[in-house]
Amino acid sequence: MMATLYDVSVSAINQHLKRIFEDNELVEESVIKKYLITASDGKSYSTKHYNLQAIIAVGFKVNNDRAVRFRKWAGQIVKDYTIQGWTMDKERLKKGHMFTDEYFERQLENIREIRLSERKFYQKVTDLYATAFDYDKDAKTTRQFFKMVQNKMHWAVHRHTAAELIVERANAEKEHMGLTTWESAPDGKIVKADVTVAKNYLSEKEMSYLQRIVSLYLDYAELQAERRIPMSMEDWAKRLDGFLEFNGNELLMGPGKVSAEQAKLHAETEFEKYRIVQDRLFMSDYDKYLLELEHQADQSDM
């Protein structure tokens, strides 16, 4: 349980406990109680259970994002107690406990609002992440999630990161420079801002698959809220990988072979070449109007 609480391996917890006891920070016998636990094989095993004192001590040894958040929380409690002589969780006292029915109903409303929004597919996933009960926009977990989520979704669909997709498909010699959609599609001009958006190069089939993935993930989120299961930032980050893998998608490992800067340079270079072709072929509403006038004039001369 401590390994789950602090998001580390069991061996790491054991090492921290060993050091705590060696340093005489705690006396091992005073923080451990042994219980006989019957396993699935029917045999009983002696299992060590550590008290709250040991759990807190380990929290001050682990070096990761979750442990840092624990230490901030614990530090605030110590500060309040030192200054005031007491500490109080006002919100929890008002509500009885944090995860009330009202909390989960609000979660459901938030998730359904995300589903109905017009935001981009990966923004919906990050919006969902932001519903975590311990959400912190400055946390390392959050920065990593925000950095990788778009590429993870793209990779699940076509085995490329967003940058790799742009480099592979942005081509001045292709129709519409390889884009399948853009801001002013289908009749308006393609502009520089359009060519650096990876989603604009997806085929109809790929876009449909991406939308289905996001929709299924939102279904899963609703189910978690309906089952009254609270979700942390770590939960959402891990569940996205698990969800993609469960649905038969290959997981992205690493940042990819092409940087965002390389993709931007490639797309904009191709656009400068394509711009000449586009300007020659493009017909504005005014051009069409003049052409129609010419056609009417020709008809009247007959």
Explain what this protein looks like in three dimensions:
This protein is mainly α and 302 residues long. It folds into 2 domains: 2-88, no CATH class; 101-286, no CATH class. The chain has helices at residues 2-6, 10-22, 28-31, 52-59, 65-84, 90-95, 101-116, 121-129, 140-158, 162-169, 204-226, 233-246, 260-281, 285-301; strands spanning 32-38, 44-50. Strands 1-2 form a two-stranded antiparallel ribbon. Helix 10 runs parallel beside helix 13.
Please render the helix and strand layout as text.
Elements: H1 2-6, H2 10-22, H3 28-31, E1 32-38, E2 44-50, H4 52-59, H5 65-84, H6 90-95, H7 101-116, H8 121-129, H9 140-158, H10 162-169, H11 204-226, H12 233-246, H13 260-281, H14 285-301
Antiparallel strand pairs: 1-2
Helix pairs in contact: 7-11, 8-9, 8-11, 9-11, 9-12, 10-13
